Amino acid sequence: MFFFLLFILNVTTVHSSNYKVDISNSDPGIINTDSLLHAVLTDTTATEKVTKPLPAKRILRHKSPDNRITMPVLETPLAVIKSEHDSTLHAEKMAEIEAQKVDSLLLLANPLLIELVYKGLSYDLNLSPKTDLRAMYYGGNPKTLANGLMNHKKTATPNENVEELRRLTRDEITRTAFHLYTTRFDALPNPDGYKSHLIEDKKFAELKLFNAKIDKNRYDRQLIVKREVSGPWSHSANALAQFSESVISGNWYQGGNSNIAILGILSGQLNYDNKKNIQWENSAEWRIGFNSVAGDTLRMLSTNDDVVKINSKLGIKAGGNFFYSGSVDFSTQLFNSYNGINSTVMKTSFLTPVRLNIGVGLDYKYKKILSLMLSPVAFKYIYMSDNVNVNPNLFGIKAGEDHLSEIGSSFKSILSYPFSPEVQFDSKLSFYTNYQKVEIDWEMVCNLTINRFMSTRISFNPRYDNTVIGSNAKVQFKQLISVGFSHKFN
Q1: What is the pLDDT of residues 437-473, one digit of tens each?
Q2: Rounded to whole angstroms, what are the CA distances from 106 to 98, 156, 162, 288, 455?
Q3: Which pick of 83, 92, 402, 477 has the fewest CB atoms within 10 Å?
Q4: What is the pTM of this model?
């Protein structure tokens, strides 16, 4: 206890002698902080002294309501204090700042940035320093303004400033407008799978800039992008191969027969549209289908679909959505087809029959979805290359003749509507009459896209024809569902 009291007495004596403040000549209400700052913030063993002491008038008095003197406030910045061997701190810190190269796009591309105003260097000022007891006891040098009492903040780079601004903005949005977020960071796709992914796009052969006048005294540089002008011609093609198969062994407990069905379609379009008054539409299709029928001992595969079609329609704008139009439709068969199982009666054969329909009239078009064409004058022609094995009465041709030609009227309706990118519905209705008998053919097709190379096709084809000689007219129909490969060429 005795040695501890001696230690406390020694420390008190040293502290009193080293940090003695003379206030005898000061105003009773003003504290002379020149001696206070010199004693507290400098090394007591050095010969430093303030060359230009701060005048007392720069020290402001703060009084409480009961007229007690509170903490003095220093009006002049501490950065103007000088010592004999230390230069001005402000000048030293300014010399440490070096010019940094900044990408101008980093700032110009950020709409949150504004013009910067220099407000001097930032310092962490400690206006109420604590006594450095370790320096007093061990005899070291206490901290001064130059060696650590006032720390200069690290100058942030422009990149760090932009990142900090974005972070603060994102935090503000999180607090006040969370509904603006569309997803979470952990829900974003993994970018590792796209590192080697090449994105191909059309390249611009030449880029040009021009000065766009914004107001009376302002101009802005804008990019001239030359738009690609599509020509009047457009084309597309589609190839489809679909099939179904079932194989049943002879001893299958439920019985049944094996069968196979194959369908192939090649189609294409070549259209002309000058965007003014002329439209010319051309299309071609070859559809062929085979299937095996249980119990047929004469043929392994029978033809269930065989048609070659070529259609062409030329329209000249009449006004609004109406066009003066002329159409030509050609269709025929390439393979033999028979009346039924184990039958030798032929229904069609190669180029039997050949159909040609020509119509002239008025066509109403709604965008590329709907076309309604009424032809008051229509020509129908049917030719048979084989009128011996195929009965000509099936096509309205008298026995012994090989062709039919007549004048009548026709109506055609074409609907092509995409319910969605994966579902396409097409409908083609044709009506012809020679003012005595009628021929109606309606083909409806729905294509369901599975992926880029797979699709499902559902077709339904009702037909009514009372031009057949020697037969009572009844409604005919054909329905087919198939799944297989499909590819479009544009």
Answers
A1: 999 999 999 999 988 888 999 999 999 999 888 888 8
A2: 19, 15, 8, 63, 49
A3: 477
A4: 0.54
